[in-house]
UniProtKB/TrEMBL annotation:
Its cofactor is Mg(2+). It holds the Pfam family tRNA-synt_2d. GO terms for cellular component: cytoplasm. GO terms for molecular function: ATP binding; magnesium ion binding; phenylalanine-tRNA ligase activity; tRNA binding. One of its GO terms (biological process) is phenylalanyl-tRNA aminoacylation. It comes from Candidatus Uhrbacteria bacterium CG_4_9_14_0_2_um_filter_41_50. It is found in: Cytoplasm. Its main location: cytoplasm. This is Phenylalanine--tRNA ligase alpha subunit. Keywords: Aminoacyl-tRNA synthetase, ATP-binding, Cytoplasm, Ligase, Magnesium, Metal-binding, Nucleotide-binding, Protein biosynthesis. Binds 2 magnesium ions per tetramer. It is an enzyme of class 6 (ligase). PANTHER family: PHENYLALANINE--TRNA LIGASE, MITOCHONDRIAL, PHENYLALANYL-TRNA SYNTHETASE. Tetramer of two alpha and two beta subunits.
Length: 355
C-alpha cells in the first residue's frame, strides 16, 4: 500500500504539470481526490493492514493526501494567474485609437418639412391634428359642398375601399382614402371647440402617378373658425408662414380662383426666389416662375354650406381655410429640382441620405 501511495503521488505530480486549463485541473482533482477517486480506492486496503502498522499507514496516507492537495492548490493558483494574464492580453484595447462613430439616421425629408410646418403654425396657436386617412364620402366631399357629379368623386381620381368588387359603404357614404386634408374641416367643426385653429397634416391619396404626382402624398390643411374672421387674418397667417418658412424677403399674393368649399377662393402665390419677384433676370425671362410668382396652394373663406355641414351657424361664425402639398412646399423651399417626385418614396438611401 505504501508503494501504491507513493506511485499515486508521483503520477499526480507528473499529470498536474501538463494541465493548462482549469477544467482539466478539476477533472484531475476528481480523478485523484474525489470520493470514488484513486486515493480513496487505495484507502480501501487500509482495513487489511495488520493492526500494529495500520495507524502508521493511515498517517502516511494522510501525508500523501496533503501533499497532493497542496500541489493541486499551487497548480490552481498559477493557472489562475496565467488565465488572468492571458485575458488582459487578449482583451487589450487601445483607448487612444479613434472611435468608430455609429451611423446616425435622420428623418425623411418630408417628415422634416412636416415638423417645421407644425412648429411654425403652433406659434400662432394652431393645434396639429390628424383626421382619418380612411374616410367617409361625407367628410371627403359632401360636407365640402361638392356636388355628386364632381369629377374628384368618380373612381378616376379617388381610391375607394372595397371588399372584393363591392365598394364599402356606410352611414356617411362610400369609404375612400382621403384625396385631400380638407376632410378635417367638418370633422374639426363637429368637435364644437370654438375658436378653431387647426392644422391637419396627413397623407392623401389620388389615382395618379407620373413625374410630378405620387399616388400617396401629404397635405397640410389650416382652418380657423371664430366670430368675425376675415381675409385680413388669412393674409396675416399666410405671410407669417411664408416669411418664416421661405425667408423674410418673400411676399405672397392672393389670386382669385374657384373651389367649391370656399367663397371667395384664392390661389396663393409667393414671390420667386430666383428673380426676386421681377420675372426677369437682366431682360431674360426667369425660367423658374411665371412673371415673378410661384403657386403655393389653395385657400379661401370657408363656404357657409361647409360651416353648416360642420354643425355651426354660418350667420355667427366665419373662417378661412387653406390646403397645400407638403412635398411641393418643401421642394420650393429647398430649390430641390428632382425630375421625378416619386423618388421621395422609393426608399433609395443614396437619395435620402443627402437631406
Ligand atoms: N383641398 C384642395 C385640394 O386638395 C386644396 C384646398 C384649396 C384646401 C382651398 C383648402 C382651400 O382648404 O381653402 O386641391
Amino acid at each position: 500500500m505504501r508503494s501504491d501511495l507513493e506511485k499515486l503521488k508521483d503520477e499526480f505530480l507528473d499529470a498536474v504539470k501538463d494541465v493548462s486549463d482549469s477544467l482539466k485541473l478539476e477533472e484531475l482533482r476528481v480523478e485523484y481526490l474525489g470520493r470514488k477517486g484513486k486515493l480513496s480506492n487505495i484507502m480501501k486496503q487500509l482495513p487489511e493492514i495488520a493492526e500494529g502498522a495500520r495507524k502508521e499507514m493511515g498517517q502516511f496516507a494522510n501525508e500523501i493526501k496533503t501533499s497532493i492537495e497542496s500541489s493541486f492548490s499551487a497548480a490552481e493558483q498559477s493557472l489562475r494567474e496565467r488565465e488572468a494574464h492571458g485575458k488582459s492580453e487578449n482583451e487589450w484595447i487601445d483607448i487612444t485609437a479613434p472611435g468608430q462613430a455609429p451611423e446616425i439616421g435622420h428623418m425623411h425629408l418630408t417628415s422634416q418639412a412636416i415638423e417645421e410646418v407644425d412648429e411654425l403654425f403652433s406659434r400662432l396657436g394652431f393645434v396639429r391634428v390628424r383626421h382619418p386617412e380612411v374616410e367617409w364620402d361625407w367628410y371627403a366631399f359632401e360636407s365640402l359642398n361638392m356636388p355628386k357629379t364632381h369629377p374628384a368623386r368618380d373612381e378616376w381620381e379617388t381610391f375607394f375601399m372595397a371588399d372584393g368588387d363591392k365598394v364599402l359603404e356606410g352611414k356617411k357614404g362610400k369609404v375612400v382614402l382621403t384625396p385631400h386634408t380638407s376632410n378635417g374641416q367638418a370633422r374639426e367643426m363637429e368637435r364644437g371647440r370654438i375658436p378653431i385653429r387647426m392644422i391637419n397634416i396627413n397623407k392623401c391619396y389620388r389615382r395618379q402617378s407620373d413625374v410630378t404626382h405620387a399616388p400617396m402624398f401629404h397635405q397640410f390643411e389650416g382652418l380657423m373658425i371664430d366670430e368675425k374672421v376675415t381675409i385680413a387674418e388669412l393674409r396675416g397667417v399666410l405671410d407669417f408662414f411664408a416669411q418664416n418658412f421661405f425667408g423674410p424677403e418673400r411676399k405672397t399674393r392672393l389670386r382669385p380662383h374657384h373651389f367649391r368649399f370656399t367663397e371667395p377662393s384664392f390661389e396663393i402665390d409667393i414671390t420667386c426666389e430666383v428673380c426676386g419677384g421681377v420675372g426677369k433676370i437682366e431682360e431674360i425671362k426667369c425660367r423658374m416662375c411665371k412673371e415673378g410668382w410661384l403657386e403655393l396652394g389653395g385657400a379661401g373663406m370657408v363656404h357657409p354650406n361647409v360651416i353648416k355641414a360642420g354643425g355651426l351657424d354660418p350667420e355667427k361664425y366665419s373662417g378661412f381655410a387653406f390646403g397645400w402639398g407638403v412635398e411641393r412646399t418643401m421642394m420650393m423651399k429647398s430649390g430641390l429640382n428632382i425630375d421625378d417626385i416619386r423618388i421621395l418614396y422609393r426608399n433609395d438611401l443614396r437619395f435620402l441620405k443627402q437631406f
